[in-house]
Amino acid sequence: MGASVPPCLLVTLGDVAGIGPEVAVRAWSDPALHELAALTMIGDVGVLQREAQRWNPSVQVVEVNRPGHLAGGVRLMPVVQGTRELLFDVKPSQVSRQAGKASYDFLVRAVECIRGGVADGMVTLPLHKEGLKAAGLAFPGHTEILAELTGTNRFGMMLYHGGLGVTHVTLHMALREVFSHLKMEAILEKIELTAKMLARLKKEVLEGRRPRLALCALNPHAGEGGLFGREEIEILEPAVRLAQERGYDVSGPMPSDTVFLHAKVGRFDGVIALYHDQGHIPMKLLAGYRAVNITLGLPIVRTSVAHGTAYDIVGKGVADPGGLIEAVRAAARLCG
Length: 336
Known about the structure:
Largest sheet: 12 strands, mixed
CATH topology of the largest domain: Isopropylmalate Dehydrogenase
Strand order of the largest sheet: 3-4-2-1-5-12-11-6-7-10-8-9
Number of domains: 2
Distance between the termini: 16 Å
Strand content: 15-25%
Number of helices: 13
Number of strands: 12
């Protein structure tokens, strides 16, 4: 048996006013990155050439017409020009219409390439939600953009690290809006999507068993039998029972202040969080910025770094490229 061919992955540049360009050029010279996949950037050639000269002069940035046209490596970064926006004068750490529109354009081009059969999957660097708004794009983030571009109705966001996946029932919305979006159907959907993804990511570890999942409670102490709220009784417990009837190994609702302790020691493969911070805070405490953001339900592979544009550290030379390497690792795994 010969060695398997590494997948062709696209890395989208995200918001050029953030740390994405620095992260890309810093990570590029790590041999581990290129052992995992054949990589092509979808971004802006001029911005990446400037950032490479500043942060990693050993990397040569070269424009290509399509992914796979030129083999990249630790010293060569192939870049497909992914936007017509003029970005060279975008100011670092500032919300920009041009940067917001370009970050969207990069995603469009990447999806076109993957669906056209010239790439196997994509890894995204962070975009800025205010930048999208400045560009007139009514999306709260990558997940929703990619769902629309691929015509996907059932989708979700999972953070993954160290064999643990955390999926969110609700995501980018005000906390006061969460309560009206906690429907049994939405919870069941995330349980199903999470189980399917973990079965792919942990195939060898699971050895044929079903992924073990836990559903977070909404209220303190899982509502204490209704003393602190009835959502557990009226929505969450029935959702768990129905999921169990459908064959999923899911427990809960469990108090969210203890469920991650159980998950950390291996009792669960995945946790279903009910809102953004309920899942993000514990995962970032466990993984730092090495967690990977994986979009569930798409017909294409998409992973991402789990950090944002970090406007506060742009240009300081302290951006950590480790998250990008982990996101490439997960994408390569899913493409295998």
